[in-house]
Design a protein that fits this description.
Helix content is 68%, strand content 0%. With 108 residues, the protein is mainly alpha-helical. It is globular, with a radius of gyration of 14 Å.
């Protein structure tokens, strides 16, 4: 879920002409800082996705979480929205790339 939010933030910066590098650097210094932001953020900005955790596996895990929530009568709306972004990235052929490639779906 955090990676989908990061992807949308990077894509939004690019769409508005803001420097997405600056965006990632600000996140790394604040409350949203995490190893995921530090590693995946710069890769998203550079559009480089060497596989560390393939996007197809990340989407599968999200699908399982969404299904579990449904099975328990506990809809996971944020996870479901993130799953849809990952599904769009998979449909665009990003399955084998790193999960950070989800930003390509957010850029469209």
């Amino acid at each position: 879920i955090q990676i989908a939010a990061l992807a949308e933030g990077v894509a939004l910066c690019e769409a508005t002409g803001l420097d997405s590098n600056d965006f990632v650097e600000v996140l790394k210094e604040g409350a949203m800082s995490s190893p995921l932001v530090a590693i995946k953020g710069p890769a998203m900005v550079k559009r480089e996705y060497p596989p560390q955790f393939p996007l197809e596996h990340a989407q599968k895990d999200m699908r399982f979480a969404v299904q579990l929530g449904d099975d328990l009568g506990m809809p996971l709306a944020v996870a479901a929205a993130s799953n849809e972004l990952f599904k769009r990235a998979r449909a665009a052929g990003k399955d084998k790339e790193d999960c950070g490639a989800v930003v390509e779906a957010a850029r469209k």
